[in-house]
Structure formats: structure tokens, C-alpha cells
Amino acid sequence: MLKKVILMCSFAMLFPGQGSQNINMLSSFFQKKNNIFKKTFNEASEYIKFNLLKLIQEGPKEKLNYSEYTQPAILTSSIAIYRFWVERNGKIPSFMAGHSLGEYSALVCSNAMQFSDAVKIVSLRGKWMEKLAKKKLYQTKAIIGLDQKIIENICLRFSSKNIYIASINNKNQIIISGKKSSIEKAIISFKKNGVKNIFDLNINFPVHSILMKPIAEKLYNILKLIKIKSPEIPVINNVYAKKEHSSHLIKMALMKQMYNTVRWSETIDLIKLNKVFIMLEIGPNKILTNLNRNQNNITSFSTNNLKNFLISFKIINKNYEKKKNCISHRC
């Protein structure tokens, strides 16, 4: 009976990656007294010796968009929201998953990784990526409404010229990255094959492509030095779209996600395969929530501001108690 209750009341927490940042993000949360958000941002700022709170509140936007600051800012936002959820005695999810950078957030919230280690690592990760962006040789684009096989074949045609599938977000949205010159040529082929839309993600490095492997190797040298435990809540990783418990395998997955495709669509499918159809995005935007919008069997909530957080909190926690009581009374 208990297993049945858990299945019926379960939900997954999803953590976003780079691109979900904006000036004044989470502003509605900072109005509370004894604010856990201010404490979390101040804590992160101490770890990386930079005032993240001032940056997200005052800008400038250009600096916030530097990966060196973007990545710790998004990570810290997610950790702060999760801490607020826990402080209010919110229900614990059955699964966690993070899109790219968001995998670090998931590992921290599942008590597999220390917040201090994660903030320092993603700041370094972003700094190394920013060096590639300064070369102005790379682009990242979202391809909307074109069959995955067609995109794969076009990318394969240009593979010697460095163009790759960076992320499979769902059947309608696939992200590509690589050399700007190659992507511009591939776009012509996408249009000829009836693509619905193509838009720029404002990420000027070859995210999740083999071109990132040198950075991944530097990252792994850092990961080897830190402690990572088995997650207390199952975390689905980007590379294999599966749960890992071994410290070594988790570190390998974090390293490999740098130069491999993010299998986000498969991640969501795995969560659904486990009879979980409620998804809660823990972050400063609604990017992952919007990706789930067209899936009829998924109910998605966001926590990007205080209003949405309170709505999500009320629905998920009341739903849990209602179904639990219903089953206990055999209604």
C-alpha cells in the first residue's frame, strides 16, 4: 500500500542550465525577512570571491551573461529555491534531473555534492568556456520543428567542419553547436528541409560538442579532488539518461556531459516510465516547464517567482496529502 501511495503522489524536480538568467531574477523572494535567498547568495559569493547578489540585482546584464558569473548565479538560484522549499517542509521528490549545468544543482540538492564545491567548479567551468566564446568562432542554435533524423544527417554532412547536436530537448526542439561558419551553411539545409524556426541561444561556445573535450579534461582534474556521495534522491544524468550511485561514475558523467549530447528528452521519458508525471522546475525561469508544455500527460509547475512557487507548493503538497488520505481510507 505504501508503495502505491508513493507512486501516486510522486513528482520530479528539474533544474535548468545556462540561459535562464536575467537581471532582477528572484526579486520577489528577496522581500521576505530573515531571507534564505540572501543568505544563500552571500554564501556563494564568499566561495567565489565575487558579489553575485549585487550582480543579479543591479547588473550589468553583459557581465551576468559571462559564463563565469552566469553559471554560479543559476546554480545559486536553484539551491536557494530548493532550500526555501525544504524550509517550508515541502515534499521530497522521487527524482531529480538537471539540464547541463543544472545537473550540479540536482547533485547538491540530493546531498551528493557540497554547495561550496559546486559553486567553485561551475565558476571555473564558465571561465574556461568564456575563453572559447572570446574567439567568436562558435554559435549555438535551437532548431524547431524538424525531424531529428534530418538534423542528424545534416550535422553528419558537416561533421568534418565541426557541427554537432548539443541537446535533444524534445521531439520539436534540438540544439546544435559548433563553428559559426559550418552552422551558417547547415542552416541553408535546414530551411530547405522545412524547419519551422531557428533561433540564437546567445551562447558563443560549442556547448556539448567534442570541441569542449579539452575543457572537460581540465574539469575532471578538479572533480577528482572533491567528495561526491551517492545521491539521497535519485539523479538522472545528462550523458546516459540514467541514475548513477558511484562517486566515480557521477564524476565521469559530469566530465562527459561537457562534450556529449544532453539527452533531455530521454531523461523526461525515464521519469515518466517510473509513473511520475508531475514536474517542478527549480530555477529563475520557466524554460524546462515550457519544454513540457506540449506533452499532454505531464503536469508542469515553475518556481521562478514567489507567486508561482506558492502555487506550486500548495498544489503539490495538498495533492500528496489528499491522495495519501484517500488511499488510507480506501476511497
TrEMBL record:
Active site: S100, H208
Organism superkingdom: Bacteria
UniProt keyword annotations, A-Z: Acyltransferase, Transferase
An annotated Gene Ontology molecular function: [acyl-carrier-protein] S-malonyltransferase activity
Class of the enzyme per the UniProt entry, highest EC level: transferase
Pathway membership, UniProt: Lipid metabolism; fatty acid biosynthesis
Known catalytic reactions: holo-[ACP] + malonyl-CoA = malonyl-[ACP] + CoA
UniProt entry tagged with the keyword Transferase: yes
Membership in a protein family: Belongs to the fabD family.
EC assignment: 2.3.1.39
Gene Ontology BP annotations: fatty acid biosynthetic process
Name of the gene: fabD
Pfam families documented for this protein: Acyl_transf_1
Protein name per UniProt: Malonyl CoA-acyl carrier protein transacylase
InterPro entries: Ac_transferase_dom_sf, Acyl_transferase_dom, Acyl_Trfase/lysoPLipase, Mal-CoA-ACP_Trans/PKS_FabD, Malonyl_CoA-ACP_transAc, Malonyl_CoA-ACP_transAc_FabD, Malonyl_transacylase_ACP-bd
All residue ranges annotated as the Malonyl-CoA:ACP transacylase (MAT) domain in the record: 14-295
GO cellular component: cytosol
